[in-house]
């Protein structure tokens, strides 16, 4: 079994069940995007509104928006995990609300996100001298910048692998179970190379898509086909966000099924 096998299985899982995947995620994803767009539009378009709520109000709005996004994402993920692992089929265009599971899932997302930020503090600190050189209009030390960048990429890669190895903690909360961080790490022992392969193929695919989209946008822009660009771009953007979201959740589901439940890929 390789990272590509995990990725292909996750892709087939989404595409084979695309009708159920749409019922689980489309409305929730649209709701999250619309709310986020509305809040950002209100902040960008009205300076008076920003001054009226002040820094505290602005920070509170951002916190509430992020919390809303996390809960919506948790709702979607819990529904998909339960659909795949418990055969809990959606009956409408909103998945069942499992309150305690969704809130615990969301809480763990926040806690793991905080853990990531703390782990990244040394990376941010390493870039401070380079940023200060640029701000003072001094020529940055390119050798140091290159070394720091390479170390940062390696560190972030290891961090992403670690988070994916710990992802069974999230999936277990969706199923009403309480897998600990230690148990998740032990269960996924030996999977680091496989998970790296998953991220490697995802990176290649995403890069290819970005290049193709860039070429497509450049052609339409050069031809001044702005209406066609908007008409195709918005649905394509939403489809891409939807597919990548479900694919990432499916990868977590697959890792849980294989390493925690002992399932085999078909």
From TrEMBL:
Residues annotated as signal peptide: none
Keyword set includes Transmembrane: yes
Domain of life of the source: Bacteria
Keywords: Membrane, Transmembrane, Transmembrane helix
Membrane-crossing segments per the record: 21-43, 63-84, 105-132, 144-163, 194-219, 225-247
Protein name, entry field: Glycerophosphoryl diester phosphodiesterase membrane domain-containing protein
Record organism: Aliiroseovarius crassostreae
């Amino acid at each position: 079994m390789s990272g590509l096998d995990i990725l292909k299985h996750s892709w087939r899982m989404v595409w084979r069940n695309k009708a159920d995947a749409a019922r689980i995620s489309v409305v929730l994803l649209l709701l999250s995007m619309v709310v986020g767009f509305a809040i950002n539009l209100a902040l960008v378009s009205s300076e008076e509104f920003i001054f009226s709520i002040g820094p505290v109000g602005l920070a509170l709005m951002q916190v509430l928006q992020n919390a809303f996004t996390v809960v919506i994402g948790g709702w979607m993920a819990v529904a998909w995990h339960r659909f795949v692992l418990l055969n809990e089929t959606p009956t409408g265009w909103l998945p069942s609300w499992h309150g305690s599971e969704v809130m615990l899932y969301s809480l763990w997302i926040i806690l793991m996100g905080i853990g990531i930020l703390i782990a990244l503090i040394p990376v941010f600190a390493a870039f401070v001298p380079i940023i200060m050189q640029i701000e003072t209009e001094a020529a940055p030390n390119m050798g140091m910048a290159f070394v720091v960048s390479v170390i940062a990429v390696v560190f972030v890669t290891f961090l992403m692998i670690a988070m994916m190895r710990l992802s069974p903690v999230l999936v277990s909360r969706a199923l009403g179970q309480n897998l600990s961080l230690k148990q998740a790490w032990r269960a996924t022992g030996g999977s680091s190379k496989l998970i790296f392969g998953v991220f490697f193929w995802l990176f290649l695919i995403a890069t290819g898509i970005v290049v193709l989209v860039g070429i497509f946008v450049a052609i339409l822009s050069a031809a001044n086909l702005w209406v066609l660009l908007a008409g195709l771009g918005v649905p394509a953007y939403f489809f891409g966000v939807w597919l990548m979201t479900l694919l990432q959740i499916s990868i977590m589901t697959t890792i849980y099924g294989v390493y925690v439940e002992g399932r085999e890929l078909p």
